[in-house]
Design brief:
6-stranded mixed sheet; alpha/beta; Rossmann fold
Length: 430
Amino acid sequence: MVSKNKFHFKPQHKTFLEMKSLYKIVIVGRPNDGKSSIFANFLGDDEVAVSPIPGETKHMQPREINLGKCNVEVIDTPGLQHPETVFFSFKDYVAAGRNPANAFVEEFKDPRYAHDVEIMKALSDADICMLVVNADNFVGHTQKCLLDTFSMLGSGVAVLGLVNRKDDDFIGEWRDNFAIRAMECFEFDAFKTKFSDCARLFDEICSASSLRVRSDLGEVLRALKANRTSLWRSNIDAAAGEILNSLKDLMNLRSSLKMSNFSISKDESSRLHGDFSSMVSAFVSGFRREVLRRFRYSGIRVNAPDFKLSDSQMRIILPNIIRRLWGKMPFAKKPDALCAANPNSDLPEIFARDAVFFVSSIASFSYAKSATKEFEIDLSKRGFAPVFINSEKLARFSIRAANGDESDSFFAMQNALREELADVIMQSAK
């Protein structure tokens, strides 16, 4: 076994103020075992190349995150292509007292091993190595070589196993094989995960014995979790604010029609309602796109029912006819008929519930699933979970919004409602 001073050990028991400027977390594993999926969920961003095709990740995908006192670089790597070759090479390097990752980089110049060399370059100064395995696979010779390889990295890097659970058939085997090598492993389903699952995983990893030895690493991961939580909550708060701003705009939408007479006909009324309903539908679609953008979902497809209005949720407004006297002859200008949202109907609550349901569904969706660009959320088939929204407050808010209220008390009401909606969304999305 290599002597400890051959590896790059870091000082232990650092306080957050004493931490170094950059920490590296490297995600490794075989092709298509879920590395990029975990990467996408850790970052809260689906602009990560995730694919069901084995070996689709061709290059390193580093992402640096500012944590205030330090930065952390999370690196997604190509799949390890030659685990047996790497394993036997590592055995020789360790026996010779060499750092195995550095030695592999120095000696393997064959282009066939380019991916493996890139991985070892990243690991040469890594702080944490997250070894991802797929629970769909049984633990055969290749998989054991993979585990043995990373167990030889030395104490300079904390190696943590992540068992990506797609199926439970071989989960026991994986646990046993990690345990044999004195390596800790954690279970995580990257495609079914919700925000709370990510938070739980961070907490579990922080309790790992290898991180207790390196207290600064635990601090880094806790800071990374706090950063991810802050981003999630700020997005929800912003989305709650957008719901109320959209509701306010909805109350001020107007569709107009030049009347043929001083009274509106049945056909004109029907046409006016149809135009306004289409306008509202486009308006709601724009709101949904903004929610997707805010939560950094670029690949997701959403199948959601159109937002439809009832007759009671719309009202026709006939402006007063402008009359002027010219001598003794009356002059009348024919008005436009206006169609607007009816704030005294159930429209405010219906819109708010629809919007909260949409935001909650988005906030809880797996970034990995979205990043594959092969999945969609089908909200038309999901049951509408009842959520508490203060109908009376919404009604008062909508009436004041429709009347163009810009007072301080109105904005105080809006802020209070935003906080309530954000709490509802957070509880629904967890």
